[in-house]
Specification:
Blueprint: H1 2-17, E1 34-41, H2 45-58, E2 62-69, H3 71-79, E3 86-88, H4 92-100, E4 104-114, E5 116-120, E6 141-144, H5 149-161, E7 169-171, H6 174-183, E8 188-192, H7 193-199, E9 204-206, E10 216-223, H8 229-240, H9 242-250
Parallel strand pairs: 1-2, 1-3, 6-7, 6-8
Antiparallel strand pairs: 3-10, 4-10, 5-8, 5-9
Helix pairs in contact: 2-9, 3-4
Family: Belongs to the bacterial solute-binding protein ModA family.
Signal peptide: 1-19
Protein name: Molybdate ABC transporter substrate-binding protein
Length: 258
């Protein structure tokens, strides 16, 4: 009997040392840790930070890591092998580019819309009242570059109105445009309604009706390289569900097209 007990003990010790079936498992009632990497347009920063916190609370053990930039930059990074599970784009054109490069799994889902707004220094010292004022002499305006969703929307408004802007520079995302306005390097910047709202007292917003000429639709999708496909799908469902849509609406985003 003593020999049998010793053999059983040896087997148990061996199982522990070699990482048996329970090695690395979490305690009962605790989910295994998971990390979801989300690439998202800069204009989503404040809203997705809140949404990520809410998603983590609803999914114990999950950590959401965001990388924010202009969508065109994010697509380039994905094409170069950058690891991400989800792409949230500020326009359909760049998402279509990602789909064309086979960087996306499944069909993208529209989850929000957004329109442009002018951001000025607090109090609007240059007395900018609308789009045409951005083309006046002495007004230093900053915009997004071509290819970036906010830049594409700006060009669409220029074309629709026949107004040509002469920006002091062209940025790769709306965050950089806001920074130029907040620092005083620019008198005005063309960003989104949601960016003006999230900036608070740092800028003054000037809406303009011509912005309806370039409504941006925001699609979201899992990447084809994701190793967390089920979790990516769960996050997308959360963004497009009631709680995600409420957070987006509270930030000033419009509802996705029907």
């Amino acid at each position: 009997m003593a020999g049998g007990a010793a053999a059983v003990a040896a087997l148990l010790l061996s199982g522990c040392a070699s990482g048996g079936p329970d090695a690395g498992s979490t305690k009962p009632g605790h989910a295994a840790p998971q990390t979801l990497t989300v690439y998202a347009a800069t204009s989503l920063t404040a809203t997705f930070d809140k949404l990520g916190d809410a998603f983590e609370k609803a999914n114990p053990g999950v950590t959401v890591r965001f990388t924010y930039n202009g969508t065109s930059t994010l697509v380039t990074q994905l094409s170069q092998g950058a690891p991400a599970d989800v792409l949230a784009s500020a326009d359909e054109k760049n998402m279509a580019n990602a789909v064309g490069q086979k960087l996306i799994a499944g069909t993208p889902v529209d989850f929000a819309t957004n329109v442009l707004e002018i951001a000025t220094a607090p109090g609007n010292p240059k007395d900018i009242t609308g789009w045409a004022d951005l083309a006046k002499a002495g007004v230093k305006v900053d915009v997004c570059a071509d290819g970036v969703p906010c830049g594409n929307a700006t060009r669409a408004v220029e074309k629709a109105t026949g107004t040509h802007l002469a920006p002091i520079s062209e940025e790769q995302n709306v965050g950089d445009v806001l920074a130029k306005v907040e620092s005083g390097d620019a008198d005005a910047g063309v960003v989104y309604v949601t960016d003006v709202r999230s900036a608070g007292s740092k800028v003054t917003g000037v809406p303009f009706p011509e912005a309806r000429q370039a409504v941006n639709t925001y699609p979201i999708a899992a990447t084809s390289s994701s190793k967390n496909a089920a979790l990516a799908k769960r996050f997308i469902t959360y963004v497009t569900g009631d709680e995600g849509q409420k957070l987006l609406a509270d930030a000033g985003f419009g509802a996705p097209p029907k």
